[in-house]
Amino acid sequence: MINVLIVDDQTIVRAGFAALLDAQEDISVIGEAGDGREAVRIAERSRPDVVVMDIRMPGMDGIEATRRILALPGAENVRVLVLTTFDVDEYVYEALAVGASGFLLKDATADELVSAVRVVARGDSLLAPQVTGRLIREFTKQRRNRPQAPSELATLTARETEVLVLIAGGLSNGEIAARLVVSEHTVKTHVARVFTKLGLRDRAQAVMLAYESGVVVPGESAPG
C-alpha cells in the first residue's frame, strides 16, 4: 500500500486528489494539508511514502516544505511529487534541487496523477525529457556559468559515468540496458553504485548533479 499525503491550499483540489487516489486499491491517502507548515507536521507524524506537493501556497511554500520533510529523521524513503501550473517554472527547478523526485502539471489527467504517484513510490523519478529536461537545462545554463564538479565524481568508473549521462538524458534502466547492450540487472547495479558514491536519493538528483557539474552540457543529447 502506498501511503500518500496531499498538500494544496485549495480545499476542492485536495478533495479531488484524495477521492481519486483513495479509490485505487494500492494507494491510501493518510492525510491532507493546506499549507507547507501543516504538511511538515503531518509528515513528521505519519511518514507518508509519497507527498503530492503544491508549490505555490501562502505561508510556507512547497519548496521549503519539501526541504524540511526530506530532512526529517527517518524520511530517507519519503518521495515528493510537486505540482505546478506551468511546465516552465523556476519553482520546479528549486523543488528538484531540494530533493523532490519529479513534478506533474496540475492539468494532468487522473490516470497521469495515479501513475506519477506509483512511479515515485517505487523509487523512480518523474522526469519527462521533453519537459523536465528542458527546464533543468534552461536554469543550469542561466545559473551555472562555471560548473564545479564534486570530487566524488572522480570515484566513478568510466561505465558508471556513462550510466550517469544516460540517466540525465531521461533514459530508464531498460533503455540504458538496451543502449549499453547489458542486462537490466547490471544497469541497476551501476545505478545503485552511482547513487551511493555521489550520495544521491534518486534519479532527479542525478539529473541535477549531471547538469550542474558539467558532466552533461545543456543542449547536448545523450551519447548514441
TrEMBL record:
GO terms for biological process: phosphorelay signal transduction system; regulation of DNA-templated transcription. Residues 149-214 form the HTH luxR-type domain. Pfam families: GerE (PF00196), Response_reg (PF00072). It comes from the Bacteria. GO terms for molecular function: DNA binding. PANTHER family: TRANSCRIPTIONAL REGULATORY PROTEIN NARL-RELATED, TWO-COMPONENT RESPONSE REGULATOR. CDD domains: LuxR_C_like, REC_NarL-like. Residues 3-121 form the Response regulatory domain. This is Response regulator transcription factor. The modification 4-aspartylphosphate is found at D54. Gene3D superfamilies: 3.40.50.2300. Keywords: DNA-binding, Phosphoprotein, Transcription, Transcription regulation.
